[in-house]
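dumping this here before i forget
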Amino acid sequence: MTFKTDIEIAREATKLPIQEIGAKLGIPSEHLLPFGHDKAKVSQEFVADARERKRGKLILVTAINPTPAGEGKTTTTVGLGDGLNAIGKRAAICIREASLGPNFGMKGGAAGGGYSQVVPMEDMNLHFTGDFHAITSAHNLLSAMIDNHIYWGNELEIDERRITWRRVMDMNDRALRDMVVSLGGVSNGFARQTGFDITVASEVMAILCLAADLEDLQRRLGDIVIAYRRDKTPIYCRDISAEGAMTVLLKDAMQPNLVQTLENNPAFVHGGPFANIAHGCNSVVATQTALGLADYVVTEAGFGADLGAEKFFNIKCRKAGLKPAVAVIVATVRAMKMNGGVAKADLGSENVSAVEKGCPNLGRHIENVKSFGVPVVVAINHFHSDTDAEVEAVKDYVASLGSEAILCRHWAEGSKGISELATRVAELADGDWSQFAPLYGDDMPLFEKIETVARRIYRADEVLADAKIRNQLKEWEAAGYGSLPVCMAKTQYSFSTDPSLRGAPTNHSVPVREVRLAAGAGFIVVICGEIMTMPGLPRKPAAQTIRFNEEGLIEGLF
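structure:
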């Protein structure tokens, strides 16, 4: 059996002018700033007005831990948005923008798949409206101003050994993780050790995604801690007067992007912090704008629920005052079999016992999401190789936990393949059963917050952190940062910090390698295990197969 590729399907789409998509949400054409005919930014003025309106119901789509078999979380997000519109609901979608790093590396694009996609797919995965370039430029402007300040006399007495601000680029490049800059003599400044992170790990990215407006954006940028003096007192971005110019660079990037699905329904695509090394959610501005315009807003959180959903609840919802009405956990029969020990090459054969063996991973996520007080429904993203017996095994397991699982065929059928899930999600949202609350309070000490996530979400026995890390956390508490939430940076492939440990492991430890203060974003980054804030390319990166064909069309992107 052969299927069209995602990009082939996307090219066959009948797209409406972006003004018609905006009109579906009541956005006047004068408040749409077009990028071509099929995408636009929404003006700051209209965003400010939309946020004051009555809010719709917020629906989170999350997933099990990702496997090489693919789960289709974004595909389900898009499909559910289309499905809600198809059953007569006024719905909008909010997802993140794609990073060039994974596009040219291993993961691929981030616009959904099959007949549940957001278009224009190629543009979304390649530069889009330039938001990531603006974030990269603003971040590196600050880096340049730090070194320039030191070069011209260092009036602020920056301790060059305690500069915490690194550089970023939107590409996977392991050679830049750890490096020395300013070599070459007096005219090039003072040599020091530093490195690059990927743009999606930048605090500027996190700030843009959490800021309420340009004024809040500039305040948060000014709050960034860039370095320390020899007496360990902090130096802020505002101390070198960089926040104004950074805000100017981010003016357009702050405006959410509007595009459409294959079924011509509105989709906001804005911001893109990774969930394994950042907080993994689209922008607060886009989400709140959508909530002011639609009755139902379907959004997603990156990777599995142990990362994306946890941070969505504990960071984004806490900071923005959001209350999710329903959570959808995406799972696949194929992934259950992989968690049950089946090799990827053997996933096409029926294996009910392996499905049953792998289901505890899904069960752990269901329990975790329910612990936040949010109603849960499981979406079984259908693959053509799934058998009825395997699907029933998943449904029976989920039912044993007091939840329900619904088979969804949106990849192949679009909205009509997900109408059952859309109907049930709308019922749950309209029932107002959500009793949402974050996992921990603001007053809990920072290390206890780390332990709470590790024990209650990862089911770890202990958190391993040396005295240096514990003392650093205490110093930040003394400096007034103790109320901040924690942003756990760990592998997405497991509840543990060992990516090879599948299923639902217990009796493991969570080693904390480093902690970073993101004062402007408003959280503490906790780097666990071997997670990298600058990924590398795989042995055979996707970039090797991306090219124009003889017709001038892009091939190999997805």
